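REQUEST FORM: STRUCTURE PREDICTION
Request ID: SP-0412
Submitted by: Lab K.M.
Chain count: 1
Length (residues): 186
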Amino acid sequence: MDGLVKLKYSFISILLLLCCLGTVKAHAQSFVMKTNAMGWVAATMNVGMEGRFNNHLTGEFSIYYNPFTYGGNKKISGLAIQPELRYWFCIPYYKHFVGLHVMYADYNVGWTKYRYQGNLFGGGLSYGYQMILSQRCNLEFNIGVGYARMNHDKYEQPKCGTFVGHRHDNYIGITKLGISFIYIIK
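STATUS: Completed
RESULT:
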């Protein structure tokens, strides 16, 4: 493993550990489960957990999985994780928040002439708003912008297509988008 790969896995591991450790101290409404409806619209199964650190900070961890291949070897498949540290301006799980998120994904995507198989990692800043629907259910809207580094192999689209080359791409733009349904576990 080169140094950059070790660094990114270490960074993600530390964030995951912080997210898990933050839920140890008991608070009212200290833990929630969620799912992002935007992911389901894209046929991507997803689930998230969020734990409360204190009166203004929470840590979230979401995982996304899409195993589907469509006709003609067209696919948008992959596995992604996206932990986030959030600061709530009021109290956790109510009204406005800002966040710092990181992401990692393995993907295999092909819809046109070529298919791309590889991974990405990056991070960004997010803003969101959460509203109360009932005692245990909330609705959350969020958007994030940031940077992602993509490393992938390029293949011709047909199944077992010819290897075309290896690429490294940089992306700056929307890195998080969600309308999430939340269940509060006390």
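NOTES: The chain is about 15% helix and 65% strand.
Reviewed by: T.R.
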